[in-house]
Amino acid sequence: MREFKINSNDSGQRLDKFILKTVKGMPMSLMYKAIRLKKIKVNRKRATEKQILNENDVVQMFLSEDLFSEKITANEFSSIKPNLNIVYEDENILLCDKPAGVLVHTGDGDGKISGDGSTQDRSTLIYHIQAYLYQKGEYDPQNENSFAPALCNRIDRNTGGMVICAKNAPALRAVNERIRENKISKHYLCAVHGKTPRNKDTLSDFLIKDSKNNKVRVLKNKQQGAKEIITKYTLIEHNARLNISLLEIELVTGRTHQIRAHMASIGNSLLGDGKYASIQKDKAIGYKHQALYSYKLEFLPYDDILSYLNGRIFKVKPSSIYFLREFSVLPNSKIQL
Fold first, then answer.
1. How far apart are CA 110 and CA 67, in angstroms?
2. Segments of 156-260 assigned E as strands
3. Four-CA torsion 319, 325, 329, 333, nearest 10 degrees
4. Are 166 and 92 in contact (CB under 8 A)?
C-alpha cells in the first residue's frame, strides 16, 4: 500500500486524473476497477473517480508495487547544464525562446533515460527547464506526486520561438484557460515565397488532419472532422530580388501546422517547408526547415492569478530570427523588434 498526501499542486483535480498522473503505468480499466473495489480510497473512505481532491487529503492505494515507477533522481537533474534562452521569469511562469531544431517534449532524440514513469530525453526543452528549476531549488520531483513544471503551448521541432512554462499547477490552469479564452495573443514572423495577394488579410477556412502522413489539409467548406482556422497576416517587406516576403502572423485559432498549411493554401508557402512545398531551391540558399518564429506574446486583460501580467508584451531578440537576414526591416522595422 502507498499513501500520497495531496499538496497545493495536486489539489483541485479529480481523483482519476491524479491517479493517472501519479501511477503512470496503470491502465484506466484497472484504475476504475480499483476505485470500485475500494482498493483506492481518500482519507481511508470510499471514493469516486470524479471526487475533487483538497490539500492535505490522503490517497491510499492498495495496489501492486509493480505499477509504481521510481521518480527522477536528484543526480539526473544535477548532471546536466541547462541550456535555455529565458525571455522572462517569475514565481509562476517562465518564457523561453526555443531554437529551431529543439524538441519541446520527448521525441526521437538521443540520451533517453528512465524517469517519472515515462521516457525522458535530455535534449528536450522541458527536461532542461525542469533541471534548471531543480537546480534553483524551485522544483523537486521527490516532493511532488502528480505535478511537474509543464509547457502550456507547443511549437514544432523546426519552429523557433516563445514557449510558456508553468512552474506550479495553479499557473498551469490559469495559462491554459487564457489560451482557451484567447487571452494570450501569439504573433509569429515567417518568410514566404512570392508576395501575398493583399498587404493585410484575415484568412478563414477549415483544417482537417491526415494522421497517416502527419499533415493537414485546408478546406474552403466544412467537412466532418474539420476544424475552423483563422489566421491574420500582415506584409512587412517584400524582397524583390529573391521574390520572398516577410510576414507577421497573428493566430486567432491554434491548430496543427496552421500557419504553414494556411499560407501554402494561398500560394505563399514558407521557405524551407518540405511538408507543404518543394524545398530544393530553398536548400540551396540555406533553408532546410520552415522559416517560422514565434516572436511575440501579449497577455490580454483577464482576471486570474496572472493578472499582474495584463498588458505585458514579451518578444524574442531579433538576432534569434535567422531569416531576417534576407530583409532590411532593421532598424526601422514596422514590427518594432
1. 26
2. 160-166, 184-193, 200-210, 215-219, 227-239, 244-251
3. -10
4. yes
Q: How far apart are CA 329 and CA 337, in angstroms?
A: 9
pLDDT digits (tens, 9 = 90+) for 97-142: 999 999 998 753 434 433 343 445 788 999 999 999 999 999 988 8
pTM of the model: 0.82
- Beta-carbon count within 10 A of 294 CB: 23
Phi, psi of 143, deg, nearest 5:
-100, 5
Peptide bond into 99 cis (omega under 30): no
Dihedral angle of Cα 321, 85, 142, 52, to the nearest 10 degrees:
-50
What are the b/e assignments for 137-160, b being 16+ CB within 10 Å?
Answer: eebebeebbbbbbbbbbbbbbbbb
The full set of domains in the chain, from first to last, is 2-67 (3.10.290.10), 74-180 (3.30.2350.10), 184-326 (3.30.2350.10)
- Reading the block at residue 22, the C-alpha cell is 501519479
Helix (H, G, I), strand (E, B) or coil at 263: helix
pLDDT of residue 312: 97
206, 219 contact by CB (below 8 A): yes
